[in-house]
Amino acid sequence: MSLGILCSGQGGQGPGMLDPLRREPAAQAVLDRAATAMGRDLRALVAGPEAGMHDNAVAQPLLCAVQAATWAALRPHLPLLRAVAGYSLGELSAYHVAGALDAEDLVRLAIRRAEAMDRADPEPGGLLAVRGLDRLQLEGVCRDCGADIAIENGADRFVVGGHRATLDALERVVLALGATVTPLPVTVASHTRLMAPAAEEFAPVLVASGLQAPPLPVLAGIDGTPVYTRERAIAALTRQMTETVAWVACLDGLVEMGCTVLLETGPGNALARMAAERHPELAVRSVSDFRSLSGAAAWVERQLG
């Protein structure tokens, strides 16, 4: 029996996500340092309009701060991990959980990543979840419309990225083909060719950062294979900005590495739901499913015996 951690991406943030962390001194200390790095009052951010929390420049460092704070409170109560995987932005947090990146560096990198992505393309962009088409069908539609497959979540579950006008055109086509679509609260076309200038800008930032070789394996988002060296970590984090995130391969990779229990850092439980659907034999939950972080830790303890 082994534990794997899933680090959430953007989309699950909400006004109550700091509440369980404020009761944990270790978590609050991380949030205080993150607020200094961001130059913002995090409590005011989550108390303000929810749309503000989905602005890319706010969402990326805020979510990384929340995950680092969650991990600071959880880590002393959990057994040694087998592996870590992060969804989209969560791949950056995964290196923190694995011990390759301290909390301050994580937040600073998230700030620089968001800035680079916001500068990469002057036209409004975004992401659209598409369900009900296989990859070959969707690739054809993307070629015709000028969009890219940003994330692969399953055989007929994908996220497509592009300019807003492009996504509007693609939505009409895939609806006519019988698919269902869900616009995602993300303001850039992550994991698409439109982010090439951002990847070029962010790569040297990663090289100059305190990122180390991960003491525990982190699964690369682009192919689900384990990363053990600093060089490959930098390459994987750079490439995922412009290439499809193979999340289904990450889930399969966790199973192949022997993970039998998976815990998502949150906020939200989207990754836990996807993992349970893909691998119903696993014990899978998110910290957001529990009223307290101690409840999440106790669940892990019960699952691992």
UniProtKB/TrEMBL annotation:
Residue runs in coiled coils: none
GO molecular function: acyltransferase activity
Pfam families the record matches: Acyl_transf_1
Keyword Acyltransferase: yes
Keyword list, A-Z: Acyltransferase, Transferase
Domain Malonyl-CoA:ACP transacylase (MAT) as annotated: residue spans: 6-303
Protein name, UniProt field: Acyltransferase domain-containing protein
